[in-house]
Design brief:
Length: about 270
């Protein structure tokens, strides 16, 4: 079984059974059609937290188009600024976007960072400590290939910080907090923060919960208390939606996006 570096989104699509490929394309076309009646600029007074897992080599142009599109409707601010605004309780005048990345995938550095730097956007990279400098992850494609996915190393993380990116924690291991005891959950929060700060000499003030569904993957009240006690200023989930005045920085809603998506798909999710 040959090992193939996973660098193209097209590789993923081509490895899927034909029914799955058709479903993916049909879903994208349907959401783009449904988005025609929606508009991001119909509301204001919010912060949206879009996030990505990968920026593959063949997604660079579309990722840049995403950022240009979002800039038409609001301003990019850093996670620090977004959390400051929520904590202040002040009115949120306008529309703001805070970009982040989960899972410590190296393609986000290779393909995402140059575009972010060019457009002067500060994003947050949530690091899973056990994946930093880990051997490449391999997975079977189902077609006789094994895809290889590379992770960041600590030098990469320092490069991100030097470029003005914020480093946060995505746990020590990529574990669902719902199945952890309180002591285990606290260990994930504290150990990951300590390791990131020790290796990068940068503050680690924000936590993104792995998997992140508040109804399935975490105990939000418990995790909020543990995150506060561990020194974090925010806790992010995978629940979609806008953040508004009075919302807690320890239950940040985020919108998962894929860089290959059309602008219509962005409009559909970010106008809800």
């Amino acid at each position: 079984m040959p090992d193939v570096p996973l660098t193209q989104y097209k590789q993923i699509l081509d490895s899927l059974p034909w029914r799955s490929r058709m479903h993916t394309r049909l879903r994208g076309a349907t959401l783009s059609l449904l988005s025609l009646s929606k508009r991001i600029d119909r509301t204001s007074g919010w912060i949206r937290f879009p996030y990505y897992h990968h920026i593959y080599d063949d997604e660079r142009r579309q990722f840049a188009a995403h950022l240009d599109y979002l800039r038409r409707f609001g301003d990019f601010i850093s996670y620090d600024q977004g959390v400051d605004l929520l904590v202040s309780g002040a009115p949120i005048d306008g529309r703001y976007f805070c970009i982040s990345f989960d899972d410590s995938n190296k393609d986000c550095l290779r393909n995402g960072l140059p575009i972010l730097a060019e457009k002067k956007i500060s994003a947050t990279f949530f690091l899973t400590v056990e994946r930093i400098a880990a051997p490449p992850f391999t997975a079977s494609s189902g077609r006789g290939w094994r895809w290889i996915n590379e992770f960041l190393d600590w030098q990469d993380c320092r490069k991100l910080a030097d470029a003005g990116m914020i480093l946060g924690s995505h746990g020590y291991g990529h574990r669902s907090f719902a199945g952890l005891s309180e002591a285990e959950a606290l260990g994930e929060l504290q150990r990951s923060r300590e390791k990131i700060q020790a290796e990068t000499r940068c503050p680690c003030d924000h936590f993104s919960c792995p998997w992140g569904n508040p109804l399935r993957h975490l105990k939000l009240n418990r995790e909020t208390k543990l995150a506060q006690n561990s020194g974090y200023r925010s806790l992010s989930t995978s629940q979609r939606g806008a953040m508004r005045r009075g919302d807690s920085p320890y239950s940040i809603r985020r919108d998962q996006l894929q860089a290959a998506w059309s602008l219509g798909q962005l409009r559909y999710f970010l106008s809800r």
